[in-house]
Design goal:
The chain is built from 13 helices and 17 strands. It has a six-stranded parallel β-sheet, with helices on both faces. Strands 7-8-9-10-11-12 form a six-stranded parallel β-sheet. Strands 13-14-15-17-16 form a five-stranded mixed barrel.
Amino acid sequence: MGTQPPRKVAFYTLGCKLNFSETATIARQFEEGGFERARRGEQADICVINTCSVTEHADKKCRNVVRKAIRENPGALVAVTGCYAQLRPGDLAAIEGVDIVVGNNEKGSLYEQVVAMLQSGQRTLEVHTCAVEEIRNFFAAFSTGDRTRAFLKVQDGCNYRCSYCTIPDARGVSRNIPVADLVEEARQIAARGVREVVLTGVNIGDFGRTTGETFLQLIQALDTVEGIERYRISSIEPNLLTDEVIDFCARSSKFVPHFHVPLQSGSDRILAQMRRRYNTARFAQRIERVREAMPDVFFGIDVIVGFPGETEQDFEDAYRFLAETVRPAYLHIFPYSVRPGTPAAEFPDQVPPDVAARRVARLGELSARLHAEFCARYAGTVRSVLFESTVRGGRMAGFTDNYIRVVVPYRREWVNRVVPVELGQLASAAPEASGYAGGDEFMIGRVVE
């Protein structure tokens, strides 16, 4: 009598890189337990869906993905976790075919919950969530599977209460594990041959609430891990981007000149309504301080448009602030989305969707121009590029230290190596002309041998 083949598990991740690191860790738990990861298009016995709830659109996308997973994997055990599962477990429990709904506090035990259900043979709906005040667990996580880059979760939760945001209700208070534990996880990542680590969390600059340590102490310790050649800070609040953090990153050979900083509005009046912890003058000062220390820095900036009460003048002020003062390399633009239960949901003067869409389009055009200008500065220069393994049209791609995407003819020996590359022209309108069908903008490169 032959042994049963291993059960297949399909994983779906929506939202941020923090979710991505957590899904990867859950996947490792299943693989270590003898399960097998389903390949793309292969029918799964178990579906694990890690959800997002940052906007109304994210909620809708989560429901659609859950229904699609149920439809494409008939009879599969379906487990749903993440922020939407924490905030609106009833919405997911009401979908026929969902077996387990797991909140963020219980996410680390999702694997055990699925195994227990399989062993019992009972497919009765289970909901494992708790009140936000009870969210205290820290689910340690890092991504694997990509030899080039890993996402390391260093912090969770948020003590800020911005007027538009539900993340503190979904993730709980700011918390972390000790620096020593994260250094050990970074060593595990390095042992897998990964060259670059991206630090992720909800509010990573607030690191240390649990242990009395600081974000500066964290990055100083991670800088000593052998085998990791690059660190990126995924997102950090401007008020937590301290001189000490800036100066350390500038001196470090591993922390690259790349920062993602949420602005949200370039209008001081709107920033106050949002309950952000800075004004435009403070934001501009932080940006300038980084540029003084790291002249080649790539800035990605988050912006919300159409916030309640945002007038044309507010928007024009924000546009000028971004175009003339901040001048980022990239804008990540969100139309404001009403989140039930937040103060902003009750604010008067909600901006019509068509007005918000027009403002998004204008900022999108600005972002494209600023990105092209940033890349053009480096044409003809040599930057270090970490190449990835994907081959498209005989070409490979990677990122410079300051986050410019570069494409060169494929050579196997360059995969997962940091290589000096001379940057050429920017390509985007017709990527097929360069032989690379990546889709996003990139620069044509020539490896300097």
